[in-house]
Amino acid sequence: MTATGTTTRTLMCSNRIKKGKIPIVAANGEIIGCNSKGINEKVLSFFMEYILRHIQTSREEIVADLLEEIKLMQKSDEPIDTTPLEKEIEKINLKKRKAIDMMLEDLISKTDLAEQNTFYDSEIARLNEEINQSRNITAIHQRQIDKVKAHIAEVNKTVGINADNSDIYGELLERFVINENSTVVYLKCVPFGFEVSHRVEVYAKIGKFDIFVESFRIVA
């Protein structure tokens, strides 16, 4: 796929313009700032069309990969069944009540009761911590799965997008990073980037140039 252009306007990543040229990873994982250089408007538009057509033609494979990612998430960090832990806490609370009865019947001293309660409370705290960890894993896990499902929905939406309509490129573009020999373009609809290596043939006399893709791959 090639394209011919005449424009010379240079575009820069909005993340760089708004947040600065030193990229920082925020606590939520968001990348703030961008050290990417500028890119010719026609070249970026060409990349967007090229990538969008790739997503449309490879949609089933991309969705299959995303579904596989969900399966891997479901296999890893499996939440603990908290029912046995909750039952163990009930048993310990029952032992605490029995210990009080034994103290009232002078079968054990107040000192013994205090020691037993200290031990029982530490066990209950440990079990509650395990329960909370399990619930946190479940919540994080579900958020990850929901995010991947949202990506799948966005990928499926690309079927109805006209790749020739450059007006929608700005809505799809997340950011781009210009490396020495390639450009990585990140879209809002998928959790990975597209690395494009290209060359440009310039015809100075007529003020035009041609764009040729030399390599293309998906990157994390």
Summarize the structure.
Helix content is about 50%, strand content about 20%.
Number of domains: 2
**Computed Rg:** 29 Å
Main sheet overview: 5 strands, antiparallel
Structural class by helix and strand composition: alpha+beta
- What percentage of the residues does DSSP assign to strands (E)? 15-25%
Explain what this protein looks like in three dimensions.
This protein has 220 residues and is an alpha+beta fold. It has 2 domains: 125 residues, no CATH class; 71 residues. Helix 3 packs antiparallel against helix 5 and helix 4 runs antiparallel to helix 5. Helices cover 52% and strands 21% of the residues.
List keywords for this structure.
220 residues, alpha+beta, five-stranded antiparallel β-sheet, two-stranded antiparallel ribbon, 52% helix, elongated
Q: Topology, pairings included?
A:
Layout: E1 2-5, E2 10-11, H1 14-19, E3 24-25, E4 31-32, E5 39-40, H2 41-57, H3 59-75, H4 83-104, H5 110-157, H6 169-172, E6 173-178, E7 183-187, E8 193-203, E9 208-219
Antiparallel strand pairs: 1-9, 2-5, 3-4, 6-7, 7-8, 8-9
